[in-house]
Amino acid sequence: MRYKKNVLGVVFWLWLALLASGLSAAQAEEVTVMQLTVEDDMDTVAQSVVKIYATAETYSNYTPWNSNTESRIGTGFVIKGQYILTNAHVVADHTFIEVRRDGKPDRFEAKRVAVSHEVDLALLTVEDEAFFSSGAYIPLGELPRVRKEVSVYGFPTGGNTLSVTKGIVSRIEYLEYAHSALSFQAIQIDAAINPGNSGGPAMAGGKAIGVAMQVAGNGEENIGYMIPPQVVQHFLTDVADGRYDGYPEFSAITERLVNPALRKKYKLSKQQTGVMITRVCANTPAESVLQTGDIVTAVDGLNVENNGTVMFRPGKYINFEHQVNQHQLGETLVLDIIRAGEALTVDVPLDKPAKTFYSYDQKPRYFVYGGFVFTPSRIPDYCLSRKDYDRQEHKDQQEHVIITKVLASSSNVGFHDLVMRVKTINGSTYNDFRAFYHLVQQGSEPFTILENEAGFQVAIDRQIAQAEHEALLRRYNMEAGESEDLRQLHQEAQLAEVTAE
């Protein structure tokens, strides 16, 4: 009761002070309510921001059969629908996740329901309904203006209670996300973002206008980056059906047209601006629509400048591929182009997802044969022109196989320090790791000959390799000579042989 009287007293004196400043009674009441609302919002923030404890399993390519346990600390915040939003890198490769509210001793087990490693976002939930009993959550806001003051909430290392740092929005750019090495819109702020802050909300006006993500790549002080609300909303819309589809890829390479001679060559007037397509990626939907030499002048009705940017708000420009990122996978991008001097409008299907080259949430694949440890390496999905793609010798190959380690024995003397990419096995090529494994297991030659691009050869005596296999595994404390997926493949092959007999 005393607390309620004190609050009413504060309201009364605040109202009188505002009247004395020259505001009308109605204006004073409106400002008073707004001040109290901001304070109420801060209480909501304190109830909605959570500390995340994640245990992850990590591996090494040199000993892929062994795993290490890693503990991580991060931040998340409750959003509408009883979900917790955080960074993907906080819960990547996780085996167990817990969350805790500020000032509360109890931890609640959480599970991951959706993840986008491309834009470094993840969605968690807690099955214990008591966790969400307060009903508090943080709504998403709009993209902030430059010079907007923001407050970043989180649990950085150095303490257990909720931390708040203030900063200013410095710029809004299109840059590379460290977790995926793919580029998207990002907000730069001058507030410190330290380990443990990842996944926390940046607040302004009682709403989350960004998600703390990473610090400057070169170690500059007080420069942090946030994931903007448009990227967050794209992710939430994508996973609303229970499945993550991802972001569409713009399957072409362009060149800016800032050089006067280049613009003159393509007979562009001063009013005509855009970028030139220098390569259309083979085996993509864009291949049937775009051509090398096309000048892209507009994207979804937004004019493309000669430096490759479009206006995303008055006076502010960003890379035109940001407009591609606004679409969901499967939608259509509308381009205005100039082709051989003729103005055209074309629809580009956005059916190919952009994928990070990094691997997350996957146990390593491997197998050991003759003491040689083989692991796969995915071939990057380069944007090749149709001509270059057709010219490839092994255009359908999806993975390389690497010898990452040699378990020393008398049969592989001379190769103990070898690291090599295998091109052929007994003269035969392979498309992926499974095909390579089949060639090794089903071979009948007395020697297995592995050769690299330079013609360097490794010889494995098949009889000795099979005879010493189990002893070699015991010597190096290995429970299995291959990863689980290959064990299943081997068992299926053995069953097929028995059935055929």
Kindly summarize this structure in a few lines:
By secondary structure, the chain is an alpha+beta fold. Helices cover 23% and strands 34% of the residues.
Describe, in plain words, how this protein is organized in 3D.
This protein has 501 residues and is an alpha+beta fold. The chain has 4 domains: 2-42; 43-246, Beta Barrel (Thrombin, subunit H); 252-349, Pdz3 Domain (Roll), CATH 2.30.42; 367-500, N-terminal domain of MutM-like DNA repair proteins (Alpha-Beta Barrel). It is 23% helix and 34% strand. The chain contains 10 helices and 27 strands. A 6-stranded antiparallel β-barrel has the order 1-2-3-6-5-4. The chain has a 6-stranded antiparallel barrel with strand order 7-8-9-12-11-10. Helix 1 (2-20) crosses helix 2 (25-48). The longest helix is centred in the first third of the chain and has 24 residues, at 25-48. The model is unreliable at 1-19 and 25-40 (pLDDT under 50).
